[in-house]
Amino acid sequence: MEYIISSRRYDPGELILKSKPYMRIIRRDLWDIICACCLKRSSELKRCSSCKIMKYCGVTCQKEAWKDHKFECPFLPGYVDGRQHFIVQLVGNLILKTKGKNWKSITEDVNGQRFSFDGLKYHNFPKMRLPWFRIAFKEIETALKSYVGEENMPDEETLLQLIGKVECNSYKFGGDDYDGWALFIGASKFDHSCVPNANIHFSGTDIQVRAFKKIEKYEKVTFSYSPMFALSDVATLHLSMKHSFGEGGCYCEDCSQPYGQSLLTKILDPVRALPILEETESNLLLAALMSKCKYPMQLISQERLNQLLKKQEGVLGDTNVLRIRLLALKCLLLDGNYCEMREELMTLASWVKLAWGEYFEELAEIYKKLIEINTYLGDTTSCLYYSDELIRLKAICIGKENVMKETCRHILNILKSSPLSLL
Ligand SMILES: [Zn+2]
Ligand SMILES: [Zn+2]
Ligand SMILES: [Zn+2]
């Protein structure tokens, strides 16, 4: 398997890759309200004169987007939205853009390494034999025919590969409530690690990959494909560790180490560990299920979590991911006594720093919560301290040029909603 290797030494915050998607689509319900290039929301957008569907904030954006939009432009007016909008439109656009081309000749260079569209990994779909998969495939195929036209449809094997490549490699871009999906060639070649050294960020539809730790020359550059202590997406939290629940499973270098020996699986007392690991996992699983089913998280009581954390003391290492996740669940998702929460959040921050480094992007959630709590407690000094920490962290993670607007807006919102109103 070919992965991206660092061609030189990088310091935290340095940009490793900035790249445009090979193809992107905008979420259908946003076609009318955002610029299909820079994603700006505005009431002054102008429609493409040809399809009269996509909108742009100006000529520069329209020209910039044309290299991708020209493929979909003739077909959008006749496009009827189906259930599989994301797959159908992205695969449809790829069919049109790659038509008649050798996939090996569609390439992108990253760090002196050349990667091709042909080399993008994809699911092999042995499930094609399964009835439910054939039904889903037929549905996509029919929708695609009506989108790009019968004459543009590739053979079944090519179509399966395209769907597989999109499923394996596409990214959502644009904030929490994403604006669309994109497929990148070079950026798809970064390997996953549960203890990564880089992170990704989007600026418009462009992807940026940045080092958040020191990366040596010839070191593999990795980022994490799923959140590590699951702040917004608790439901996925157990999927990334092979020793948790046996589901999914991760084969990154850290997870491949024998249980108990990596930073994230550290165990201090192997004799007492097993029942505590099981109890922790079942509580995390319960939290994941509750959040997935939109049950209130409060059903897991602070008291229960306290007892469990107490049991973990001296048994699981402080950087054991199950210990970190449990504490994160306790102080980020459930409300408690402010003074107690502040202490626990500070403990959580120190564990996370030990495990993933001081510029690990998920620390932002802890800092935001600390700003909020210190505001409520009227502790202006601590509030400003964590605001500084948040800005410093974000500057490394997403770049100084992107940090001010995003982070300041967030801090201002917290301060404005505070009962003391420090502003
Ligand atoms: Zn624009
Ligand atoms: Zn158009
Ligand atoms: Zn892993």
Please tell me about this protein's structure.
- The structure is a single chain.
- The longest helix has 23 residues.
- The protein contains twelve helices and twelve strands.
- 43% of the residues lie in helices and 10% in strands.
- The protein is mainly alpha-helical.
- Helix 2 packs across helix 3 and helix 11 runs antiparallel to helix 12.
- The site of one zinc ion has 6 residues, from loops.
- The site of one zinc ion (ZN) has 6 residues, from loops.
Any chance you could write out the topology, listing elements then pairs?
Elements: E1 15-19, E2 23-26, E3 46-47, E4 55-56, H1 59-72, H2 85-98, E5 107-110, E6 113-116, H3 131-148, H4 156-169, E7 171-173, E8 180-183, E9 191-192, E10 198-203, E11 206-211, E12 222-223, H5 253-256, H6 270-292, H7 302-312, H8 321-333, H9 338-356, H10 363-376, H11 380-398, H12 400-417
Parallel strand pairs: 9-12
Antiparallel strand pairs: 1-11, 2-8, 3-4, 5-6, 7-8, 10-11
Helix pairs in contact: 2-3, 2-4, 6-8, 7-8, 8-9, 9-10, 10-11, 10-12, 11-12
Bound molecules: zinc ion (3 copies).
